[in-house]
Backbone:
């Protein structure tokens, strides 16, 4: 088996990333032209391979992508598990004719619910990448022993090229709170959280329904992803570029080289209907564009990135817009083995994120 280093060398990963960085430095008009070229190229490649194409739609980024594609004559079907989005996003989806999908089904034939997934697998907290690592620590096996060791120590072993100090290792702050599952194996003394962590929500609620629709329609997706968002997506986009034709994954991300300013500028040019949860797109005195309310959106129970937000954060805004839903997610969405109800409040307390109303005074 080839090591990660050998595979990266074969795929010219370093060169691809450097070229991608150069594209990210292009002026706005050049980036927009690049997006159009990549989108048309993807459509042509799909025709050559006998594939259809569609747009996977969620928040403002992918809504803008849908209207951008329409503006250049690419009339792709649009799909979304809209029921997971804020009601204002759902209204825009309906206005634009986005096909509404249901979450993936359980073994009993009923669709997965948000609370069921959290109870079964764990809370989506910190980031998708970090949650995936914590989930591996929670579910040890012989197959993932090497990866678990890398998560604790940063040492990758033979498959990873015997590297040390790699990004596989969790940040010390999170090791202290979540690394206790490996205390005996690694001779450390970390904590074990009083709740489970998982990245599976996106898979069952969004990814699998979209993948199932795509297979049924012989279709591959346009996605509104941007490398500037960081995280796991950034690395993948920089390695593989806007259009990717892999063995198991085919997708186009025309906005991959965009930053937030590019996206908001294009949204204004296209007169994109901005869902109410974002407020309005405004320009600050220094010329910077921003949305007056939410900068990012997602499921009302999603905690990815919550530790990076200032108050009032997403759960504060949920309390303002829907107090009953806020109370459910914060205090009642899960149960311990003894029947004790708990929710995001326990999680946020554990990772040091304030959420109680009395602490919001003055904001």
Residues:
């Amino acid at each position: 088996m080839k090591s990660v280093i050998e595979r990266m060398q074969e795929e010219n990963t370093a060169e691809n990333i450097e070229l991608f960085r150069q594209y990210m430095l292009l002026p706005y008009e050049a980036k927009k032209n690049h997006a159009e070229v990549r989108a048309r190229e993807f459509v042509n490649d799909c025709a050559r391979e006998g594939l259809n194409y569609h747009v996977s739609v969620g928040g403002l980024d992918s809504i803008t992508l849908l209207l951008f594609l329409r503006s250049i004559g690419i009339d792709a079907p649009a799909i979304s598990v809209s029921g997971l989005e804020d009601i204002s996003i759902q209204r825009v989806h309906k206005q634009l004719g986005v096909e509404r999908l249901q979450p993936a089904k359980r073994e009993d034939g009923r669709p997965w619910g948000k609370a069921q997934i959290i109870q079964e697998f764990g809370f989506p907290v910190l980031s998708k990448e970090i949650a995936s690592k914590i989930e591996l620590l929670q579910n040890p096996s012989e197959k993932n022993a090497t990866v678990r060791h890398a998560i604790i120590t940063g040492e990758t072993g033979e498959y990873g090229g015997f590297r040390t100090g790699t990004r596989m290792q969790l940040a010390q702050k999170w090791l202290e709170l979540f690394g206790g599952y490996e205390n005996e194996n690694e001779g450390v003394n970390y904590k074990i959280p009083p709740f489970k962590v998982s990245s599976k929500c996106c898979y069952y609620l969004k990814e699998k329904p979209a993948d199932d629709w795509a297979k049924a329609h012989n279709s591959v997706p346009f996605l509104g992803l941007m490398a500037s968002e960081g995280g796991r997506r950034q690395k993948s986009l920089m390695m593989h570029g806007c259009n990717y034709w892999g063995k198991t994954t085919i997708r186009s991300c025309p906005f991959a080289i965009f930053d937030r300013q590019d996206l908001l500028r294009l949204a204004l040019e296209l007169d994109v209907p901005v869902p109410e949860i974002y407020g309005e797109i405004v320009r600050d005195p220094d010329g910077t564009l921003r949305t007056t309310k939410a900068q990012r959106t997602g499921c009302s129970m999603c905690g990815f990135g919550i530790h990076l937000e200032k108050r009032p954060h997403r759960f504060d805004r949920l309390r303002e817009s829907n107090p009953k839903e806020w109370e459910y997610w914060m205090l009642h969405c899960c149960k311990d083995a003894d029947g004790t109800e708990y929710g995001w409040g326990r999680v946020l307390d554990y990772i040091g994120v304030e959420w109680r109303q009395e602490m919001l005074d003055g904001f």
